[in-house]
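Q: Could you fold this chain for me?
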Amino acid sequence: MAVNFGFDVDAAVKKLVMTDNVKEKEILAKEIQAKAKDKGIFLASIQDVYMARGKGKGKNFTVPAMNLRSLTYYLARAIFRTAKRLNAGAFIFEIAKSEMGYTNQPPVEYSAVILAAAIKEGYSGPVFVQADHCQIKATAYFENKAKEVAGLKDLVADCVAAGFYNIDVDSSTTVVLERPTLNEQQRDNFEICAEMTKFIREIQPKGLEISVGGEIGEVGHKNSTVEELTAFMDGYNSSLPKGLTGLSKLSVQTGTSHGGVVLPDGTIASVKVDFDTLKALSKAGQQKYGLGGAVQHGASTLPDEAFNKFPEINTIEIHLATNFQNKILDSKLFPKDLYAKMVEWSKINCAGERKPKDSEEQFIYKARKRALGQFKKDIYGLPENIKDGIAAEIEKNFEFLFKQLNVQDTKDFVTSIIKPVHATIGLRHAQAHLDGEGDD
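A: Sure. Below is the predicted structure, expressed as structure tokens.
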């Protein structure tokens, strides 16, 4: 049940989402954060929770990292309601570099909307917001390495300023499998990741250690191996300046793909995760390098029966996005006329992304996410009963995932470890570098 604290949080969120003025967004975000602080709600890093789990403390659970591409306020409220019912504290709200662009959700807006949702639902304690796939674009990198890394630093600085205290560095795009040794294949990857970690440590708020994740294999490509993990981590540790805290986790590839594999009729192909490989990678990361464990990307379109296996094999985190988007757009409550406009926009503006063998259904499935930012205000402007109704439908999915991933009754464990460090959120730049490919 929503809680009334004498602050019109709904009105503040509406202004925040609807305004195109970034300075106005910043003012509203700071106001929301101040109200959140009064209620014991604070943005936090999950670093120490992952370090504790890597040492075997607490029960086995897999943290759901959820990308909210649309109706963010309403879905976040549903997540907080679920967390309260299940006494859960180990869950992350995230958004990828690419998603920030095509959903038109800049970092300062995203983190403030999440805090507002917590206020609305009477949730208290640490709230984890993560920048997913802070990605190096390989073609740009090999043309001008310094420029591409500088652009990524700009984006990360914007995210940290906005309260994203969990950062996933994705330089796995620079892995060159044609090189003769694993060390050389991973060299650009681990050197960039170490440089980005150093940069993050320099800009993180005083008293707070940001959780930094790395990645050793692009999702949708060949499966990762323990030998690749070892080559990456050894190279990363030797490249990181002594005395600095390194990674808390490592993303790996075990058979999934972003958004799932779309069949010609628009349905999603069944995908199998190599759980034996994932278990071995997580174990190696924990035991040899002190990580929280391995991270599974591209999992939201997996079959329901797969999810309870992740905590069984000690996967530290799982990334979920596309299925939530699908449940919004495919809901019977979502207006058909608005959806038709979004599809038409996608056909016109995303035609260049269409592959020669794509059926109409395949193309629309893959392209329609690009319309979310263009129609953001239309979607947010839908009647409250429609937005609440769609969120209620997806809330059932959140509860299922929380139970399958064993994050119920993690609130006390999390709050015993994570203590408040308050830093004021805001803008660093009006514009960030939001081009990229990775999302889940």
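A (continued): Residues 429-436 have pLDDT under 50 and may be disordered.
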